[in-house]
Structures are given as structure tokens and as C-alpha cells.
Amino acid sequence: MEKNKVTVTINGSEYIIRGEESDEEMRVIAAYVDSKIKELSSHNIKLNPTFASVLSALNIANELFQLRKQYDELKGKVEDPLKQLTSLKTEHGVLVEENSKLTESTALFSKEIEKKDAELSALNEKYEKLYKEYAIKNEELSNSYREYELMRREKENKQKEFERVRVELSESKHKLIELQNQLLQNQIDIVKLKKEFDEYKLNYKGNKEAESV
């Protein structure tokens, strides 16, 4: 892939830089470095250009390390929600399985009650004893239904908690991606600055040697 080439001005000197980034991106990087050097020089006019460039590089590197520290802290905060999410997924799977079994049991109870109800409708007068048994079965079904409702509400609460954690994880992930992108950009800035600084030292040394001759 052919690299882009652009001429930029840093601290009053023109440089030709090449990179895979767009011309605009490379100009923005150069402008950022230039602004840092000028900002530092404005506070101490006695600084020579070389020392100002070195101090600016150190300041930019410090910014990079601070961002990396923030990234590590955010990464630590994300790990706990991830563990909680894994635990919630496991609990959710268990609840789904239990709910499925409970649904099957409830369906069987319902069919049994329907059968008993039909028999009682036809034999109510002759089979009072059977009616009492039906009442007992009906009470058992009510208990089972109440248990089912309790499990359902517990499942809903777990689902809400799961959704809350999922949203928090998504937000943390976006923040992490933003920091990663910012960190990558700063790393690119440092590499660019180091390359430019090395070129500057070579040019400066060459000029000194030419002046000596």
C-alpha cells in the first residue's frame, strides 16, 4: 500500500512525513506536536528548539501513560461485571430449565383436573367422595400455581438484573473501545514524534558539521 506524503510545519521548520494515515490526519498530528512545543516555549523563551522538542515529547509521553493508566483502571472495573454476567447467565439457564419443568408439570395437572372435573359433573350426586378428592386435587393445583407464579416473578427479577448488567457492560465496552482508540492514536503520535525528532537531530548534526567546515 502506497503511503501518503505531506509537508508540515513544526516549530517553524518544514518536514515531509509519510504514513498510511490521510493527509488531514497527519496534519492534525503535526499541528498537535507543534502546539505542544509552542505552548512549552511560550512559558520559557530561553528554551532552545531541541530542548523544547524533547520536553514536549516527554509531556506527550506522559499523556500517553496517563491514558494507559486510565485504560487499566477501566479494564479492572469491567472484569467484575463480566464475572457477574457469567454467573447470571448460569443462573438464568437453571431458571429456564426449572421453569420448563414446572410448565410441563402444570400442564399435566391441568389435564388431570379437566378429567376429574368432567367425571364430577356426570357423577356429582353419586360420587360425593370423588368430589372431595377433586377438591383436594384442586388445592394442590392452586399451591402448584402459586409456586409457579413465585418462580416466574423470580425469573423476571433475574432477567431485569441480567439486562441491567448487560447495559452496564455495553457502556463499559464502548468506553473501553474509546480509550483503546485514543491510546492507539497517542502511540501513533509518539512514533511520529520520535521519527521527526530523530530526523531533526540528524539535520541539526549535519548543519553543525557543515558550519564547522
TrEMBL record:
Keyword presence, DNA-binding: no
* Coiled-coil boundaries: 113-196
Q: What's any one GO cellular component for it?
A: cell division site
Keyword entries, A-Z: Cell cycle, Cell division, Coiled coil, Cytoplasm, Septation
- Which InterPro entries does this one have? Bac_CellDiv_Activator, Cell_div_ZapA-like, Cell_div_ZapA-like_sf
Location in the cell:
Cytoplasm
Assembly, in brief, is: Homodimer. Interacts with FtsZ.
Question: Could you name the domain of life of the organism this protein comes from?
Answer: Bacteria
- One Pfam family from the record: ZapA
The protein's matches in Gene3D superfamilies, at most eight in alphabetical order, are given as:
6.10.250.790
PANTHER family cross-referenced by the UniProt entry: CELL DIVISION PROTEIN ZAPA
**Protein name (database record):** Cell division protein ZapA
Q: What does this protein do?
A: Activator of cell division through the inhibition of FtsZ GTPase activity, therefore promoting FtsZ assembly into bundles of protofilaments necessary for the formation of the division Z ring. It is recruited early at mid-cell but it is not essential for cell division.
- GO biological process terms, semicolon-separated: division septum assembly; FtsZ-dependent cytokinesis; septin ring assembly
